[in-house]
Amino acid sequence: MQMQDAAPPGFADIDWTKPWFAQFAARGERWQRAALAGYAALLNEMNADARSTQQQTGRGQRLAFIAQDDLPPGAAYEAHIAATGCVPTRHNLHDFFNGSMWFAFPRIKAALNARQSAAIDVLGVGPTRGGIRDALTLFDENAVLFACADPALSAALRGFDWQTLLVAQREAWGARCEVRSFGHALLEKLVTPFKACTGHAWIVDVPPEYFAWNTSERDAWVDEAVSAALLGTDELSSRMFAPLPVLGIPGWWPENESAGFYDDASVFRSGRRAR
C-alpha cells in the first residue's frame, strides 16, 4: 500500500519535559523521530518494540501494528485486535499515543481489549456501544490513573472538593497521591494544553509504601491492579470516573501555583456529587 512520507502536524510539538508526557519520554522520543521520518518508519519502530517485548492483546495474540488501510473491510477494530494481535494504526498523534499505552500499561490495554471484544461477541457492532463499551472507551480515550494512599484525598476528588485536593493538600501530591496519564485522546489534547482540559480519573487505592517505589515498580503495580479490576467486575459505567481538570494538578502547570487559579468555576465545577 502507499504510505505518505511527510509527518502530519503535531508530532514536532510534543514536549517530553511536560509532566503528562515525561513518564513516556524514553520510548516516545524515539517514536517521535520515526514519526517525523514517515509512516513506514513509525510502524517499523513500533513493531520492533512489539517484537522485543512479546506483548499480547486481549486474547493472547502477539501484539503488532499495521497500517489502518490493512484493517479488512467491515472488521470491528477491537475484535480484529483480539483475534489477530494487529492494531490498525494511522500516522497521527491519536494512534501514536494509543500505541505507546500498549507498552506503558500493557495489562490494562489487554484488559480493555478483552472486555471490548467480549462485548462485541455478545452484542455485535450496533449504532451505539452500550453502557459497558462506552465506559471502556472512555477509559481508553480519556482516563488518568489517580493512585492514592489517603482515602480523604480520594473522597475530595469524588466530591469535587478542589480546595482540599489541589490547594490545602498540595504537599500530599507525590507523597500520598499522584496521577499517571493514560487516555490517548487526552494526551493528544495535551500537545497543546488548555485550562479546561479534563481527564476522567480512575481511582486506584495503593499501599503507603507505593510512594517509596521507583517509577517502573509503580507502573507495574498500577498496571496489574487496574487490569484485574477491569476484568473482575461486571459493573462498568461512566459514573465510576471522577472528572479531574489536569492542569490543576500540583506541579503540572506553573499558573496553578496561585490559589486564584482554582477560582474559575467554569473549569473547577462543583459537580453532581457536591449537589
Order of helices and strands: HHHEHEHHHEHHEHEHEH
What is the tally of helical segments? 12
Low-confidence stretches: none
Proportion of residues in extended strands: 5-15%
Radius of gyration: 19 Å
Kindly state the percentage of residues in helix.
40-55%
End-to-end gap: 55 Å
Q: Provide the structure class.
A: alpha/beta
Described by strand count, sense and barrel closure, the largest sheet is: 4 strands, mixed
List the domain count as a whole number.
2
Task: List the quaternary state of the chains.
Answer: single chain
Number of strands: 6
Read across the widest sheet, the strand sequence of neighbours is 4-3-5-6
Mean pLDDT, rounded to whole units? 94
Shape estimate: globular
SSE order and pairing:
Blueprint: H1 19-22, H2 25-37, H3 39-53, E1 64-67, H4 77-84, E2 86-89, H5 93-104, H6 106-123, H7 131-142, E3 143-148, H8 151-158, H9 162-168, E4 177-181, H10 184-189, E5 198-205, H11 215-232, E6 242-245, H12 271-274
Parallel strand pairs: 1-2, 3-5
Antiparallel strand pairs: 3-4, 5-6
Brief write-up:
The protein is an alpha/beta fold and 275 residues long.
Task: Write up this protein.
- The chain has 275 residues and is an alpha/beta fold.
- It folds into two domains: 11-125, no CATH class; 137-274, no CATH class.
- Helix content is 45%, strand content 11%.
- It has twelve helices and six strands.
- A four-stranded mixed sheet has the order 4-3-5-6.
- α2 (25-37) runs antiparallel to α3, α6 (106-123) packs antiparallel against α7 (131-142) and α6 packs parallel to α11.
- The longest helix has 18 residues, at 106-123.
- It starts with 18 loop residues before the first helix and ends with a helix.
